[in-house]
Amino acid sequence: MQKAGFRTAIAGSKPVAQLVDRTRARATEAARHSPVLYRGKAIPASALREITAAIGPFPKRKNFPNDEEDAWTTRALTDIFWKDDVPKFSLLWLSEPDLSQHETAPGSPTARAALKSSDDNLAKVLATLKAKGILASTDLFIVSDHGFSTIGAAIDVAARLRETGFDAARELPLPPRPGQILVISLGGSVEFYLPDHDPAVTSKLIDFLQRSEFAAVILTRAPHPGTFTLAEAHLDAPNAPDVLISNRWNDRPNEFGVPGEFISDLGKSAGQGSHSSLSPHDMNNLLVATGPDFRTGWKNQTFERQRRRRAHHSLASGTAIAAPDGRPRPDRSPARSESRTRGKTSRAARRARPRREHLAPNP
Fold it and tell me: What is the value of pTM for the model shown?
């Protein structure tokens, strides 16, 4: 949009917000008037001085929910960046409810207060647009970047590998030793990098993961029995790991009645919230789109036909559908029919079956 001459505005209470417009070189007039705010810092730096003079300095994080930082960031957008006019594109990236659900758990009183905080900030955005007389002519997207689960068990995957004889670590020396494995934790997923890409070590690692109590879906650079390839998931980038796993999950509710647990690698403790697995609870994103450029009352007929066929197939024949942990099972309830067993889904389920089991109980 900046290349087309339109000004933009980015405001986030998390550092990740700067990724949307992270260039420091502001070559065009539109770019020079397109501020980026990320957790109390700004591009250009002069933008922060105007914000601080008007609404005070970025607040220090005291507790959860992180409502003060989010409210300050929202005001920076609506009161400062939108003071004279609303840019062609604006982004508001809030820290909640992500922070509170990590610190507590989905459904906790703190997490629910965080949701209320985000609702209040959305109300501030809508009220500002309405006051400026442009709410009806503005397209709005309200979106989450992921869902959430509760950690049912926390483990140290690198330590498990070392106990089995692998030379695995969270950091590697330079140059790395032959056969070493770099383990990167993503919470509900784990990446494994083999600097020398040794096929024998890779096969041994995959065999260990397929027999483990924590690994579910396994993706690999090269084809291996019982795994998917990174290319099949469109993850075959030059810097992609040699092996990537999604940890096991289930539908058990946490203490607040919110379903969805998984095994986590490091970072957080059992009972806290996390994400990054292939659990449907983690993949359950929010997307609301409203505005003059969106059709109302429209349904994706292709999706509707697939949904009805899936429900009919399960009810009529009782054939296997995906269980909460990914293993096929007989079920006549359309509410639990996560995937069909015909066509590509069936083949994928059969390939993944050896490594998809229920979440192990807490140690």
Answer: 0.80
Secondary structure (DSSP) of 140-175: EEEE-S---EEEEEEE-HHHHHHHTT--EESS--SS
How far lies 83's CA from each of 51, 236, 279, in Å? Answer: 11, 44, 42
d(CA 218, CA 212) in angstroms, rounded, equals: 12
Cβ atoms of 215 and 183 closer than 8 Å: no
Q: Count each helix (H run) and each strand (E run) in the chain, helices first.
A: 9, 18
* CB-side neighbour CA atoms (13 Å) of 119: 6
Q: What is the pLDDT of residues 202-242, one digit of tens each?
A: 999 999 999 999 999 999 999 999 999 999 999 999 999 99
Structure tokens at 77: 């957008």
Strands 320-322 and 189-193: unpaired
* Six-digit token string for 14: 């998390």
Distances (CA, A) of 61 to 58, 113, 319: 9, 16, 52
